[in-house]
Design goal:
- The chain is of the alpha/beta class.
- The chain is 48% helix and 14% strand.
- It contains 11 helices and 6 strands.
- The protein has helices at residues 19-25, 42-51, 64-75, 96-116, 118-125, 138-149, 153-164, 170-175, 193-200, 218-221, 223-234, and strands at residues 4-8, 30-33, 57-62, 80-86, 180-185, 206-211.
- It has a 6-stranded parallel sheet, sandwiched between helices.
- Strand 1, helix 1 (19-25) and strand 2 form a beta-alpha-beta unit.
- The longest helix has 21 residues, at 96-116.
- It is globular and about 45 Å long.
- The two termini are 17 Å apart.
Length: 235
């Protein structure tokens, strides 16, 4: 029986975000992409992951999925044999003006999704989420927008609520005891390489891998490079 690799997608994402990795890894790994349905809490999402998980598994989480993975580590660390955290973060919403600005920006996109549709929101969102040189890559941008369109404005609002109310995971990082790989696009302006180095510094048995010429959507921007890192993470 093949070992299980749980793949946790980010905000409004699905299997598409891991498509290259799944195709490459499936001969050796049973790859399972988690669907959070309409969950509006990272903890509820983590419980959904565990409800459908075997007793032992490897796990990778991208963006919001990385935060869900940290909640899985809080709830059941003994089940996770290997962990990869991609283009993600660990801190709760900032206090004061910085936090208010984040909430305002996120809620403006929720309003756009409800009033103009998910595609309009996604085309605006993606401009800050890929390497600047890829903004005119029609195939990539359309794949991301189409992926978002498979979910509803209500799901977007629920996931935004989960992110705004995210728990601080500093203590979780300090207690991780399985081999852990942090992976980030070099040009990820939302979840920077420096942020990932700070996370790696808090985790025993960890390493940092940087994907060159990639922004926040690194698994789709540089799929082969990401898959190579996955093979290393899983070996």
């Amino acid at each position: 029986m093949k070992p299980t690799l749980l793949l946790l997608p980010g905000l409004m994402c699905d299997h598409t975000v891991y498509e290259h990795q799944i195709n490459a890894l499936s001969e050796a790994w049973h790859c399972v992409v988690v669907d959070y349905k309409d969950d509006d809490s990272l903890v509820t999402m983590a419980r959904r992951v565990l409800d459908n998980a075997p007793d032992s598994f490897a796990m990778a989480g991208h963006s919001m999925g990385g935060r869900v993975a940290l909640e899985v580590m809080r709830l059941a660390p003994e089940k996770v044999q290997r962990l990869a955290l991609l283009d993600t973060g660990y801190a709760s919403l900032a206090d004061g003006e910085a936090g208010e600005k984040e909430v305002s920006g996120r809620m403006a996109r929720v309003k756009t999704a409800h009033e103009q549709g998910v595609a309009a929101m996604a085309r605006d969102w993606v401009t800050g989420m890929v390497h600047p040189d890829r903004l005119h890559d029609t195939a990539l941008i359309n794949a991301i927008v189409t992926m978002f369109e498979r979910k509803t404005p209500a799901i977007f609002e629920a996931q935004i609520k989960a992110l705004i109310e995210r728990p601080d995971a500093t203590s979780v990082l300090a207690n991780i005891d399985c081999p852990t790989t942090f992976i980030v696009g070099r040009q990820d302006a939302w979840s920077t390489p420096e942020q990932h180095q700070a996370m790696a510094d808090k985790v025993r048995h960890s390493r940092l891998e940087i994907i060159e010429d990639a922004g926040h959507m690194s698994t789709m921007e540089q799929p082969k490079a990401m898959t190579d890192v996955f093979w290393s993470f899983l070996s």
